[in-house]
Amino acid sequence: MDLSEILTKLQLENKETSDSTSPQPCIPVSKALSQIQHLFRAATSPKSQEGILKDIRSFLSAADVHWLFSPCCQNAGLNIGDIWKEFVNSLIQHTILPKCELDSGELPESSYQLIPDRAKNITEVLLILLSKAAAEKHLNPCNSTVVPETSPASTLLPSVFIFAATHLQDYPWTTASSRFAANKLMDLLVETAYCKNVRELLCGKQDGGTTGIFGAVLELQRPELKKDTWKLNQATKHVFLWSLLQVPRPWLCVHLEHVFPASLIISDDYRTENKVLGVRCLHHIVMNVPAADLRQYNRAQVLYHALFNHLYTSDADLIQVVLPCMLDLLQVLENPSHRAGDPRKPNRYDEVLRLILMHMEMEHKIKLGILIARHLKRLERVIVGFLEVCDAPEEEARLYVLKTLESTIRHAWPRIAPRLHVLVKSLVNLLYDVSTDCSSTPQTMKDELLEHVTRCLLLLSELCGQDLQFCHDVLLTCKEQHRPVLNPFFVSSFLKAVLGGVHGSCSDARVSQCLEKVLQSMRCLQ
To answer: What GO CC terms are in its UniProt record (predicted)?
Structure first.
């Protein structure tokens, strides 16, 4: 089907000329596109809409590139970029997700059953359009007095990017075929902008030769990312997160005033899924924006309070994203310990750890592991409590607590001796539990637990064998300060007696091997 037949079918026949051999219509492209939009809006059934989209694809394929995009001849005086942007937006509106008025921000999956096919059909139109628009870059206007404006392809990039990002991933409004088409469209966007990847498309090239489209994308999304609008379209938050994660430092700093409030709004939702998504955005901001900019206008302090409030939850999914974000943020707010004037002065690290340990002491569902000596009294109760509770078959809690204990012994060893009898007893009990465990815990996990128990006992045995003169000095200092402390000789004798007694009465080969390793280490230290 040639162009004249397509124009006739679309009711765009050229009545101004009888020259049927003309390579292009004598009407401006704006009139053609306006009529196409009218016909498309008038089509009510999916079948008729699909038929018009098929005609549009044929129309774009057959039309002359010069007539479609050049601001001269029939298009003289027209803003071609704005005309095509309006046309593309009208097509994209056909695929917009149903408006969600629910407070949850989510609709049943059945609400999206028409979206994947619509998106696929629109994508096929946009693929042809972008290919044509890219070819226009190599053409010059026939009228030398016309100054070329911004390329129509560049004008279309932000809105088409958001459309492609909406349908890239596995969500209720996508299918395998619609995702494949969206990925193909995203690749073409990158190619059209002469970029290597999506990051370069959003940020621009490192040499500063081109400007990325991330600012334009945020500008288009801004009305949808307000406190009272971000839930109306379920895709909005996912597109925002996906595009944000593509922008690293130093480019992200420029857009901080736009991305920071939106991320806080999403993280402040009552649903855990949205909190997690929002915190992921905030963590990316913390990692990719200079500390000075985060501290400016008290942003870092606001973020600290927002994250601190999340620590009151017992939801593991949320805690797992909040803690890494909080730890990285504390490096922005607090001076490094080797620079601080008084390293023992309480700060926000203490506030965070105090709250975490309080919840761990009362709650056995949180998966944590944070090290510090100042809180050993509470940390000891947490460690002993967790080691007593089996969480087969994964045994994640006891495994992480053993790792925590190992690091605590390494970093806080001067204050471990008074707690030796409690820790050894707890570790020996764990050895017995593992050796008599008949649950579904895999043997590899049991071996890993035994390995970490052995490491902890070895560290405790090394602690008993520290330089006795140093231990004597510590003992004298503690007496002067009226602080109770165990005699190091008694500590060593206690450890040998306990482990030796257990080793002599143990019938499990793996446990005996662990104990023998520890006892042998103690003999070498004598």
So the answer is: cytosol; nucleus; TTT Hsp90 cochaperone complex
Q: What is the pLDDT of residues 299-325, one digit of tens each?
A: 999 999 999 999 988 788 999 999 999
Which of 45-49, 197-201, 217-221, 282-286 shows the lowest per-residue confidence on average (mean pLDDT)? 45-49
Separation CA 109–CA 171 (nearest Å): 9
Residue 24's pLDDT is: 58
Residue 484 has pLDDT above 80, yes or no: no
Q: What would the two tokens of residue 65 be?
A: 């590139």
Question: How many other C-beta atoms lie within 10 A of the C-beta of residue 416?
Answer: 21
User: Residue 480 corresponds to which tokens in the numbers above?
Assistant: 């002067």
Are 27 and 75 in contact by the 8 Å Cβ rule? The answer is: no
Q: Which residue type is seen at 503?
A: H
Q: What residues contact residue 4 under an 8 Å CB cut-off, 6+ apart?
A: 13, 14, 20
* 84 burial type by CB count under 10 A (0-12 exposed, 13-18 middle, 19+ buried): buried
Per-residue b or e along 234-272, where b marks 16 or more CB atoms closer than 10 Å to that residue's CB = bbbbbbbbebbebbeeebbbebbebbbebbbbbbebeee
pTM summary value: 0.70
Judge whether residue 87 has pLDDT over 50: yes
Separation between Cα atoms, residue 33 and residue 39, nearest integer Å: 10
